[in-house]
Structures are given as structure tokens and as C-alpha cells.
Amino acid sequence: MEIALAILTGLLAAAGAYLLLERNLFRILLGLALIAQAANLLVFSAVGLRGLTTPIIKKGATALEEGHPDPLAQALVLTAIVISFGVLAFCLTLLKKAHRRSRESDITSLSVADS
Amino acid sequence: MTDPATIVLPILLPLLCGGLLLFFRTRARVQRAGLVISMALNLVGAVILFSRVNRREEPIALNMGGWEVPVGIGFYADLLAAIMILVTAIIAMAGALYALGDIGQTIWKKNYAFFFVLLITGINGAFLTQDLFNLFVWFEVMLIASFAMMILGRRRHTYEGALKYVALNMTSSFFFLSGLGILYGKVGSLNLDNIATVLATSNTDPLILTSAALLLMAFGIKAGVFPLF
């Protein structure tokens, strides 16, 4: 399971980096989305994948028993997903506005003098 | 007001003012006055926090909701954090006064003041938090406010700059996220104090070095080390 997730994370990050280096703005955005997923998967699996049990602290105990998945990593990923979703939505609007303004989707066509 | 309660002032005051400002978005004069008032309140909060921290022997710490460290998210203000908050508040006050003369009428009506205040809230939060993931969240608060402020002007080159800035910063945010994820997997805590204690003894593990490289890259990009402007 860890191996499969590691390969998937690597593939997502590689595809994301490839798309990020393109000149087409929409592909850059897709690249960001893929890298976001890669980062989320990495956080999710970095903590270790342990069992399919529910991580609830037993009555009277003060800590989680061994062998349970770490619920904090999942909470982190959830927050990160929400954040990346929000920023990506912002990016899409930005892209649409930039596109409407210039009718171009090539990032170099947007530049005026700056490089 | 007790000492631990003063630590939330630099976040609560600007955030409350920002929320109020949203109700008056069409009235430029209210927005202008509101921005100056919120930054003045922020400055007052920063001065109170600084004087309290300065007077005490040990730093101020507050755990949200009363949850203790391994579970809860803590706020922590030592003298350095208090000084940074104070410096931010002074610069923000100066910036707000400058904005009164520099920012045009139409931009005030696009919630300029709200984003300004949100930006300052994010910076204050980043200085005060004791939790690595919480730091990431405050960075994002700061970034989204700066993204929004960048495109208020709406000239042609605005979009080019904004798209590059957003793409770069998102990439660096994901480096940051990966770095802290790996670190959490290895150390088992996100509390900066705990991480420092663990890393003081074992810091040659390949995973920890990887996460250090990722975090260095993330903060480097955010600090403008790369790309070289």
C-alpha cells in the first residue's frame, strides 16, 4: 500500500511539475492542482498507513492505542484540501479575467515589459 | 485583562474590524476611516501585548480551548514575537495612512481595507502561533489576502504579475505542506517546541533532512530568495 501511494505521489508530482513548466496558462493551473494532490497524498502517507480501525480513544484511557491510524494527519490533509481548493478557485477566476482581457492563453503574451 | 488573554488581541482586533468593514463596502469614506481605526486598534493591541511580555519573566502562552500541548494548538509570545508584532503594527499603521492618499476611490470600494486588515491578521497569526501546521494556515491567510490585493488595480500587466506570483506561491506552499507532513510523520508532533527538542538530539535522519530541504525551499521562495528579483 505504501509503495503504491509513493509511486502515485511521485507520478502526480512529476506530471504537476511538467504541466507547471508549460506556457499555456490553463495547463499551469492543472499542474498546480496535481501538485496539490501530490502534497496531500504525501502528508497522508508520511504518517504511516495503519489499519482501517476508527481512531477513538477508549473510555478511561488518555491516549490512542497502538496500531490505529493517526487522525491528525487526516485533519491536516482535510484543511490543506480546503485551502488548495480555495486558492485554485481564485486562480481560475484570475485566469478567466486575464484571458478575457488579452484573449490569449500563453503566459508570455501577457507580459508587457517585465521578464 | 489577564496576561494570556492579551495574546489574542493582535488577531482578534484586526479580524473583528475587518468583518465590520465588509458591511460598508460601497462607502469609500467609511472604508478609509475604518482602515485607519483598525490599524490604530491593532497598534494598541500590539503595545499592550509588548508591555505585558516585557514585564514578565517568562513568555506568554495560551492553549486554544484549554487543550494541552500534544492535542491543542498553542499561541506563544516571547519578547521576539512581541517585538515583531509591534514592528508589524507600526508599519501597518504607516501603510494605512499612506493608503489614504495613494489608493483611488474605486479600489476602496473593492474591499481594499478588508484585505489590508486580513493581511495584517495573517502576519500577526504567523508570528504568534506555536504550531507548524497553524503557521501554514496563517501563511495562506496572508497569501490569499495579498493575491486579492494584487488584482484590485486591474491593469493589463496586473494579471501577468499576479498569475506568476500566485503560481510561485502555491508551489512553495505545497513544498511547505510536504515538508511539514514528512516532519510530522517522523517527529510525531507539530508543536514547534517539541520539534526543536526532538531535533536537538536526532537530526541526521534522511527524512528529516528531506523535510528541512523542503521547508528551506518553501520559506526561500516566500522570502524572495528564489526567483532572484
Overview of this protein structure:
The complex is a heterodimer of chains A (115) and B (229). The termini of chain A are far apart. Chain A is 63% helix and 0% strand. By secondary structure, chain A is mainly alpha-helical. The mean pLDDT of chain A is 82. In chain A, helix 1 packs antiparallel against helix 2 and helix 2 (25-46) packs antiparallel against helix 3 (71-102). By secondary structure, chain B is mainly α. In chain B, strands 1-2 form a two-stranded antiparallel ribbon. The chains are: A mainly alpha (115), B mainly alpha (229). At the A-B interface, helix 2 and helix 3 of A face helix 7 and helix 8 of B.
Largest β-sheet summary of chain B: 2 strands, antiparallel
Tell me the span between the first and last alpha carbons of chain B.
45 Å
Structural class of chain A: mainly alpha
Q: Which runs of chain A of at least 5 residues are low in confidence (pLDDT < 50)?
A: none
Order the strands across the largest sheet of chain B as they lie in space: 1-2
Largest contact between chains: A-B, 38 and 34 residues
What is the average of the pLDDT values of chain A? 82
Number of helices of chain B: 10
Helix and strand topology:
The complex is a heterodimer of chains A (115) and B (229).
Chain A: H1 2-20, H2 25-46, H3 71-102
Helix pairs in contact in A: 1-2, 2-3
Chain B: H1 3-6, H2 9-21, H3 28-55, E1 60-63, E2 74-77, H4 79-102, H5 105-108, H6 112-128, H7 132-150, H8 156-187, H9 192-201, H10 206-223
